[in-house]
Every structure is written in structure tokens, then in C-alpha cells.
């Protein structure tokens, strides 16, 4: 794996080759990753995985057309061939009036403060195995746990670099560390499974193996002997672990490409009030050690914090350069790149701001409702906003969490769900999208 500076040099060299081959404009990306993980099951080594990948991608514009091509061979001869083939492909491609590099005036000229994404730690396989054993042992020690799907520990490091023909060149490295456990409680047909996991940039930020293992075990035991829900309309409360998926549906509908294709349930709602005025959703790509932090986007634009929803109001679309041209607007610094292909839209670290009520206060007036801890399936229509997911969790009876329930479906429309959403005050920063406990009244339940 190259260093960020070496990766930038390779990208710049590929750009020079593309221009020499006849490209009118071009950008090049370098994407590399190395990772290692160890899984232990019932005290024995179950699996060891190690992967290394290194890829360079080139996008060129010539004669009104564009083409993208990639290679895992970074040698000079391979780059020569890559450039010539990409230009030949672009000249044969149909014209695309929206394709092209981002406006030069928008390029990042100075990086934000160091985002501290790489801890430089080298984790030995033996240490990963010890940690995997510790997390599984902690889960198996919980009374009621009867079996294990395994405890896992992993470490990774990645490098990303981007160069363009109109003056941008940047790169950065990031580390990753993860820990998880998945165990089974109960016997025979009454068995229930659950899990716990965390992922961080720095190893020092991970919870202990004992904490993760204990959480996995306790979650599994709490799910034993689930009952069934009656069908009808009732309040639904989303556990923070799965509530972030609702914000994910919002983000997908906010992408400029979806709006340009008129394939979003948010069409014609720019600036509209979707949520209660107490709801604000923030995107921060500059959070120190953030899982989705990055100094620049996939087109060389400076990333910046912004509100996606401000006091209940939608603040606009998330756009790469192509979508911005289609919509007659300005790109927002949300472009992302893989090893090949055109940019797509992604966000940084997203949080739904906490409310004022504790989770206990949030559910105190619910006489009959459900607390959802797991969602199943993908029944969400991004065009209409219709929402239907299989679920499991716990009954809420007279303001208290009661016994587990399973095999039911929750349904509504995302527009209605957003309008009814009320957040608790228990926000914790753990993932790429973080939310507190969320309550939505009036959802349809299909049970018995």
C-alpha cells in the first residue's frame, strides 16, 4: 500500500498520461485497503481473514463523451495502456452535457485541521485472537446464553487519493478497529440470537471486550419467549441501534441524482417542513476520528458541516457536479468515489439532535405500543415513501417496557413518519449515522 503522498504521485502521473493521450480533462483516484480479522467460536479458532487491495481508477472526458476505467496494476506500462484505452472509450461514448469535472473555483485549496483518522497502530493477529476470545467469553458468561456464533476482532487501514487535471491533488489515510459478538440464548425451538458490535478509527476508542460481550449476551437473553402483537395502529419506538435507518432513507431521497430522475418521495419539497421544529439533523464530515470523516469529497471539493434538516425544514439536495448541472445548482461537497465509475453521493457523520425527554419519559404515556430493536427486509419505496418492514422488539404496556415480541410488521409512509417523529435525549456517537431513541405515533402494525 502506498502512502498518501505516493498515491497522489501515481494519480498525477496517470493524469499526465491521459492528457498526453488526448483527454480534454481527467481525474484519477487511488483506493487501497488492508484488513485482518479473527473469529473465535466456543473458544476455538474459527476463521482468520486477511485481505489487501490496491486500485487506481481513471475518468477522462474527450469529444463530449466520458469513460471510466480501472486497474490493479500500478506499473508505468499499465498506466500508459489505461490512459490510451480510456481516451479511446470516451471518444466512442455518446455526449453527456452534464458530465465533467467540478468547477475549478470550488476546489479545496487548504485542508481542514487534522481529522486524526489514522492511529498508526499495528495490531498483531495474536492480539486480535485474544480480544476475540475475550469478547466471546464475556458473552457466554451471561446467564441464559447457550451457544455462540462467534466473537470477532478486526483491524484495517486504508488510503485514498484524488488528482484532477485542473489543479487538485489530495490524499489521506485512515485506520479502523472493530469488535463484535453474536450469541444464542435458550434451547431448541425457543432459541434467540442477538449481537453487539462497535467500530472505531482508533483502537483506544473501542469499548472493552467485556462490555461488548456482555451487551450481546444480555440482548439475546432478553429476547427469549417472544409473544405476538395484535394488529392495529399504535405508537412505535425505535431503538437507537436501528433508528438511524430512517435518516438513511431521508438521505437517499435527498440525493440530487434521485431528484433529477424525479425518483424521490421528496420531489418538490425543497425547504419544506418535514419534521417538528425541534428536529435538526446535522452532517459533520470534520468530526475528529469520525467513521465517515474526510477532508475533501470525491471531486476535490472541500467538505463542510451543514444541517440536512434545520428546525424541521429540509435544507436542500446533496449533489455531485453532474447532478448539480442537471438541477442548475452548485455541488455540495458530497461526492464519493470508488475505484472506478462516476461519482455518487454520500454524507459524513450524521446525527439527529437529541430532544429533551429521557427514553422513560418518551414512553411514559404509551398505554399500548411497541419498542422495536430489529428490522427485517427492505420494504421501502424511495419514490412514494411507503414504508413496510418486518420487526421484532418489546411491548410497551402502561409506559413500561414489557416482554419480547416478534414476527410483526410495521408500516406507514415516511412523510407521515417524519412529521410524527419525536426524539429522546439519549444520543450517543457510535456509528456513521447516530440518532437517539425515536418515537413515532400512529404506525400500522400487522401481527396476529
From TrEMBL:
Domain Metalloprotease TldD/E C-terminal: 231-447
Any one of the GO BP annotations: proteolysis
GO cellular component, one term: cytosol
InterPro entries: Metalloprtase-TldD/E_C, Metalloprtase-TldD/E_cen_dom, Metalloprtase-TldD/E_N, PmbA, TldD/PmbA_N, TldD/PmbA_sf
Biased composition (Basic and acidic residues): 212-221
Xref: SUPFAM superfamilies: Putative modulator of DNA gyrase, PmbA/TldD
Highest taxon of the lineage: Bacteria
Metalloprotease TldD/E N-terminal domain segment(s): 26-90
Chain positions covered by the region annotation Disordered: 206-227
Domain Metalloprotease TldD/E central: 124-224
Entry coiled-coil feature ranges: none
One Pfam family this sequence matches: PmbA_TldD_3rd
An MF annotation (GO) of this entry: metallopeptidase activity
Family according to the record: Belongs to the peptidase U62 family.
Protein name: Microcin-processing peptidase 1
Organism in which the protein naturally occurs: Novosphingobium nitrogenifigens DSM 19370
Amino acid at each position: 500500500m502506498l502512502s498518501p503522498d505516493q498515491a497522489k504521485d501515481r494519480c498525477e502521473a496517470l493524469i499526465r498520461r491521459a492528457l498526453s493521450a488526448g483527454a480534454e480533462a481527467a481525474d484519477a483516484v487511488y483506493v487501497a485497503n488492508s484488513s485482518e480479522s479473527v473469529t473465535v467460536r466456543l473458544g476455538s479458532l474459527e476463521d482468520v481473514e486477511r485481505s489487501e487491495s490496491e486500485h487506481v481508477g481513471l475518468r477522462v472526458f474527450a469529444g463530449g463523451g466520458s469513460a471510466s476505467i480501472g486497474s490493479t496494476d500500478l506499473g508505468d506500462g499499465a498506466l500508459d495502456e489505461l490512459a490510451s484505452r480510456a481516451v479511446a472509450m470516451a471518444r466512442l461514448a455518446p455526449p453527456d452535457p452534464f458530465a465533467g469535472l467540478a468547477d475549478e473555483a470550488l476546489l479545496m485549496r487548504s485542508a481542514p485541521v487534522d481529522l486524526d483518522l489514522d492511529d498508526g497502530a499495528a495490531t498483531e493477529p495474536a492480539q486480535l485472537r485474544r480480544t476475540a476470545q475475550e469478547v466471546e467469553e464475556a458473552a457466554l458468561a451471561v446467564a441464559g446464553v447457550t451457544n455462540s456464533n462467534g466473537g470477532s476482532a478486526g483491524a484495517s487501514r486504508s488510503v485514498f487519493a484524488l488528482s484532477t487535471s485542473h489543479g487538485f491533488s489530495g490524499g489521506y489515510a485512515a485506520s479502523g478497529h472493530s469488535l463484535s459478538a453474536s450469541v444464542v440464548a435458550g434451547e431448541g425451538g425457543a432459541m434467540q440470537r442477538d449481537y453487539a458490535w462497535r467500530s472505531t478509527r482508533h483502537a483506544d476508542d473501542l469499548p472493552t471486550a467485556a462490555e461488548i460481550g456482555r451487551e450481546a449476551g444480555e440482548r439475546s437473553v432478553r429476547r427469549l419467549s417472544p409473544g405476538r402483537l395484535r394488529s392495529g395502529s399504535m405508537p412505535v419506538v425505535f431503538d437507537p441501534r436501528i433508528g438511524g435507518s430512517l435518516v438513511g432513507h431521508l438521505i437517499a431521497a435527498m440525493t440530487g441524482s434521485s431528484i433529477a430522475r424525479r425518483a424521490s418521495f421528496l420531489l418538490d419539497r425543497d425547504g419544506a417542513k418535514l419534521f417538528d421544529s425541534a428536529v435538526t439533523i446535522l452532517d459533520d464530515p470534520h468530526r475528529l476520528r469520525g467513521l465517515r470523516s474526510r477532508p475533501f469529497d470525491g471531486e476535490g471539493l472541500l467538505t463542510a458541516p451543514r444541517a440536512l434538516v434545520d428546525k424541521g425544514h429540509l435544507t436542500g439536495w446533496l449533489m455531485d457536479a453532474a447532478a448539480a448541472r442537471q438541477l442548475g445548482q452548485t455541488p455540495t461537497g458530497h461526492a464519493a468515489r470508488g475505484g472506478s465509475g462516476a461519482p455518487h453521493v454520500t454524507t459524513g457523520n450524521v446525527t439527529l439532535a437529541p430532544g429533551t425527554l429521557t427514553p422513560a419519559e418518551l414512553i411514559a404515556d404509551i398505554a399500548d405500543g411497541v419498542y422495536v430493536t430489529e428490522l427485517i427486509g427492505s420494504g421501502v419505496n424511495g419514490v412514494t415513501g411507503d414504508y413496510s418492514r418486518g420487526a421484532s422488539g418489546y411491548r410497551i404496556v402502561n409506559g413500561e417496557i414489557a416482554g419480547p415480541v416478534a414476527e410483526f410488521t410495521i408500516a406507514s409512509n415516511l412523510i407521515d413518519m417524519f412529521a410524527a417523529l419525536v426524539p429522546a435525549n439519549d444520543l450517543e456517537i457510535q456509528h456513521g449515522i447516530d440518532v437517539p431513541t425515536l418515537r413515532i405515533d400512529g404506525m400500522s402494525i400487522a401481527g396476529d
